[in-house]
């Protein structure tokens, strides 16, 4: 899985067996070279010679996926013949479900050629074709491993974009009835952008820049003045909306705010938008479990606890998915391995209650080895 933060690819080798928790056999992370990151960032916006630039970036991306897969095979001591399939999400460069498309660049044919393993890719298009948002796709997987018989839980992914999955009591007992989920707004996508500008680093290590600043309430109010935050689900978003240009437009009237205060306010923006959605749609939840890169940011976790208390969802503990036995950085890659497994079995992978699709659909396209 390579997400909105575009720092690299997280991979897991996982064994699925019926009626048993998934078993992670190996994990790997392969970073992106600066040239690939720049190419992927550039493709977020219209530009010249896009078709060739996209094709070249897709092949370079597939090569990084192949490195990750070979590392997983080596670590898990597996041969390609022992692996049923690779689930390769690709890199989202445009997400416009309201126009009937979503675009994840990838070269799954090249990946199959380089690994000699079947590749499952293009998970989102079928849901969009059925009238859905194509995102988020992970709630069905969350329900299988994180649901509880006796309480409502919220799983919050703090990746580039924040999203939540609402798991009502009983949702983990062999089904995903009444499970809901949707994107809430920006998370690391803006925090990382600001850290890169002012620290020269890919992200704000340990949330230190945010911790050195204070939330600027007028700026926070301006950031919250965005129609997406008030839209009813199903809804999804990405860099098409929340990008450097959006941030700069919001900051144009706040030039005197220090970089540290901006970072603290961006953390508060993520926390506030998540907390508001939990209050609106899951006020009966008994715990919030965080995954994604934001789970490693103590300031962001603290901001989420504060925002939940201020929103009226008091006394709800905020933990990482480690508390449920799954490391936060495994969850997204695990989810797309699960979706690949569902595709191979010709089983649906979407939840219409989440995406708004007209029905259950098998997600993904298979590229044979």
UniProtKB/TrEMBL annotation:
Listed GO MF terms: ATP binding; kinase activity; phosphotransferase activity, alcohol group as acceptor
EC number: 2.7.1.170
EC supergroup of this enzyme: transferase
This protein's record includes keyword ATP-binding: yes
Protein's pathway: Cell wall biogenesis; peptidoglycan recycling; Amino-sugar metabolism; 1,6-anhydro-N-acetylmuramate degradation
Record's keyword terms, sorted: ATP-binding, Carbohydrate metabolism, Kinase, Nucleotide-binding, Transferase
Pfam families (UniProt xref): AnmK (PF03702)
Binding site for ATP: 3-10
Key word Nucleotide-binding present: yes
Catalytic reaction equation(s): 1,6-anhydro-N-acetyl-beta-muramate + ATP + H2O = N-acetyl-D-muramate 6-phosphate + ADP + H(+)
Biological-process GO terms, alphabetical: 1,6-anhydro-N-acetyl-beta-muramic acid catabolic process; amino sugar metabolic process; peptidoglycan turnover
Protein family: Belongs to the anhydro-N-acetylmuramic acid kinase family.
Known function: Catalyzes the specific phosphorylation of 1,6-anhydro-N-acetylmuramic acid (anhMurNAc) with the simultaneous cleavage of the 1,6-anhydro ring, generating MurNAc-6-P. Is required for the utilization of anhMurNAc either imported from the medium or derived from its own cell wall murein, and thus plays a role in cell wall recycling.
NCBIfam families: PRK09585.1-3, PRK09585.1-4
Protein name (database record): Anhydro-N-acetylmuramic acid kinase
